Structures are given as structure tokens and as C-alpha cells.
């Protein structure tokens, strides 16, 4: 169905792109932003209102889809989950404006994540050694809620270097669109395409030596939420196949940085709710690498993961955990080696 009426679909895509381009451009001129804090890789006032272009793009494109394709059949829970997407955007906007406390912010996020999983339905199987295994509904629900929560925060934490979040998530959504074509999941096709167009409209202002604007919480939380629920829709619409691990692999470079940095901070007995600037990408920038060089490194890693995902989706690699485990091992090893290299160059070494 999505392959029909190509011209109309192209108009929806153009609407998403130009809405993001125009609103993000306006916000970059308006100069609304936050003072850099303890987790920023920048100094001074950082423009963080670009996410309004992203969320506006989603809204207008979804209105276009509703008007042009009123009989389009999408995944169970699509409408309430899209309402939750805008709730996420509003939460991010409030946090950008007045900086909510982490406990309140995370609490609201968990409620939204739970409502999204309730609307879509939890996964009922999980990839294992030689075949998928049944998953208890409670475990499926809890795991899906944790998945959305982790992805939202990971994307948010990694939106700190010029072009890093936008470029890696553009690659991830492009590959996810390919998986949607392979799997025949209409909701995956639609949502990944909308995210892709919104990000392409945002990147011209962010992927620069001197970024004109960042997405802020309103953009990064929305992009993370949309990506995470798209994976859940993909799993729900392809019950005969196992695509659970497509999402984690596509954003593996970001997840490894966030989660291993968290482990590193726990080992140092730091307050993990306190703002910091010790993500690997931030340490690379402080060591003298430019923003674009660091973002390019993460984008290259994301591109490798994207190619593996598209090929693996076509060949059925993700019914088992062998390929994901090898990728995880390689990513963790790379993080450790780079991290130790940076530590060895510190003055106190």
C-alpha cells in the first residue's frame, strides 16, 4: 500500500523536510538557547531550540498522511502512540525552558514509555542461540518499557557534538526504512521515513564546524522515542520473523558510549544523576579532535551497523544472537581501547 501513490507520498516527505528546514532555520536565527552546563561539550549559550523544527515536521507530516491516506492501515495503537510522541516533545520543551529535576523528568518518561508499550503490545518472543524463545508477558512489557526509556535518554545524552546525533540517527532511520521494505511493515516504513525527512531538514544547521542550533530535549527525546516505538511496531507487525535486535544494533555506537560511561561512573562512585561531560565523544573532543571528526567517527560506526542490519534482515540473521553478540563484543572492545588511550594521555599519567 505504501508503494502506491508515490507522488502523494513524495509530497508528504517534502512537507516533513521543508517544515523541519524552515522552523529549525527560524529557531537558529531566534537564538533561543541554554547556558552550557556540566555535560556540555560547548561553552557559552548553546542554541537548543532546533527540536521544534523536528516536532513540527512530525505533526504536519502526520496531518498530511491522515488527509491523503485516510484508509491507511497502520499498527495497533498507532494513534495513541503518536499522541504520546507529542507528549514527549512537550516534556522536552518544558525541560529546555525550565530544567526539570531528573527524578520528575524520568518519572514522567517512564509513564509515557509504559503507555506506549501498553498501546502497541509487548514482544512475546526473544532471539536466542538457535531460534526465538517465548517471552513471559511481564518480562516483555518491562523489557519494552526499559528499551524506550534507555533509547530516549541515550539519544538525548549524545546530542552534544555538532552533527553527532543527527547524522547517526539519519543513518539509523535510513537503514530502518530498508528493513521496513524487506519486512513489509507499513508502520516502520512510515515512521522511519518521517524521522529521516525531519532529520535531513535539521542537519544543515547542526552538521557544521560551528553548529547554529541543537535539537534540545524537545528534539532528541522525540527522535529517541520515535525510533524506539518504531522498532516495537516492527516486531509487532512481523510476528513470523525476529527483528528485536535491529534497533539496538542500529544505534549500537551510541548505546555503548552511554552504557559503558554509566558503568565507568558507577565504578568511580559518582552521582549518576548529576550532569557530567565524560562520555567518550566528549573526552575525544577535549583531547583535541574536532566536533565533525568525532561525529564522523560515530557516523562511520553507525554506517557499518546499518549495512549489517540491512543484510542481516534480508538473510534472517537476527533470529539468533550470534551476530549481535559479535558486534557488541567489537564495540565494547573499541570503547575500552579508545578510553584507555585517552586516559594514558592525561597529565596525571
UniProtKB/TrEMBL annotation:
Transmembrane segment boundaries: 6-32, 44-69, 75-94, 106-126, 138-157, 164-183, 189-206, 218-236, 242-263, 292-314, 320-338
Primary location group: membrane
GO biological-process terms attached to the record: cell wall macromolecule biosynthetic process; cell wall organization; lipopolysaccharide biosynthetic process
Keyword flag Transmembrane: yes
GO cellular component entries: plasma membrane
Alphabetical keyword list: Cell membrane, Magnesium, Membrane, Metal-binding, Transferase, Transmembrane, Transmembrane helix
Subcellular location: Cell membrane
GO molecular function: metal ion binding; phosphotransferase activity, for other substituted phosphate groups
Topology with respect to the bilayer: Multi-pass membrane protein
Residues the record lists as binding Mg(2+): 156, 217
Cofactor(s) demanded: Mg(2+)
Protein's UniProt name: Undecaprenyl-phosphate alpha-N-acetylglucosaminyl 1-phosphate transferase
Amino acid at each position: 500500500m505504501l508503494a502506491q501513490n508515490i507522488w502523494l507520498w513524495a509530497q508528504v516527505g517534502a512537507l516533513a523536510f521543508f517544515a523541519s528546514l524552515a522552523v529549525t532555520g527560524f529557531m537558529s536565527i531566534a537564538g533561543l538557547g541554554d547556558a552550557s552546563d556540566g555535560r556540555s561539550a560547548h561553552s557559552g549559550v548553546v542554541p537548543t531550540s532546533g527540536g521544534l523544527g523536528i516536532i513540527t515536521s512530525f505533526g504536519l507530516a502526520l496531518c498530511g498522511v491522515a488527509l491523503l491516506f485516510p484508509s491507511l492501515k497502520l499498527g495497533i495503537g498507532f494513534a495513541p502512540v503518536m499522541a504520546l510522541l507529542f507528549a514527549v516533545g512537550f516534556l522536552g520543551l518544558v525541560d529546555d525552558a525550565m530544567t526539570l529535576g531528573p527524578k520528575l523528568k524520568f518519572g514522567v518518561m517512564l509513564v509515557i514509555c509504559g503507555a506506549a508499550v501498553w498501546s502497541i503490545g509487548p514482544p512475546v518472543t526473544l532471539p536466542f542461540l538457535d531460534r526465538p524463545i517465548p517471552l513471559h508477558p511481564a518480562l516483555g512489557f518491562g523489557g519494552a518499557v526499559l528499551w524506550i526509556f534507555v533509547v530516549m535518554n541515550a539519544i538525548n545524552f549524545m546530542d552534544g557534538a555538532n552533527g553527532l546525533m543527527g547524522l547517526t540517527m539519519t543513518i539509523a532511520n535510513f537503514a530502518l526504512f530498508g528493513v521496513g521494505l524487506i519486512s513489509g511493515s507499513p508502520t516502520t516504513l512510515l515512521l522511519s521515513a518521517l524521522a529521516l525527512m525531519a532529520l535531513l531538514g535539521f542537519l544543515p544547521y547542526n552538521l557544521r564546524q560551528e553548529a547554529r542550533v541543537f535539537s534540545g530535549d524537545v528534539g532528541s527525546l522525540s527522535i529517541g522515542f520515535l525510533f524506539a516505538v518504531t522498532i516495537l511496531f516492527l516486531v509487532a507487525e512481523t510476528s513470523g520473523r525476529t527483528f528485536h535486535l535491529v534497533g539496538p544494533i542500529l544505534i549500537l555506537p551510541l548505546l555503548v558510549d552511554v552504557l559503558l560511561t554509566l558503568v565507568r561512573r558507577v565504578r568511580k562512585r559518582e552521582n549518576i544523576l548529576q550532569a557530567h561531560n565524560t562520555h567518550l565523544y566528549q573526552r575525544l573532543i577535549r583531547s583535541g579532535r574536532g566536533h565533525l571528526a568525532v561525529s564522523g567517527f560515530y557516523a562511520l560506526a553507525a554506517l557499518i551497523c546499518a549495512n549489517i542490519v540491512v543484510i542481516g534482515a534480508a538473510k534472517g540473521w537476527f533470529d539468533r544472537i550470534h551476530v549481535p553478540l559479535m558486534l557488541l563484543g567489537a564495540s565494547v572492545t573499541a570503547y575500552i581501547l579508545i578510553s584507555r588511550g585517552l586516559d594514558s594521555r592525561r597529565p596525571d599519567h
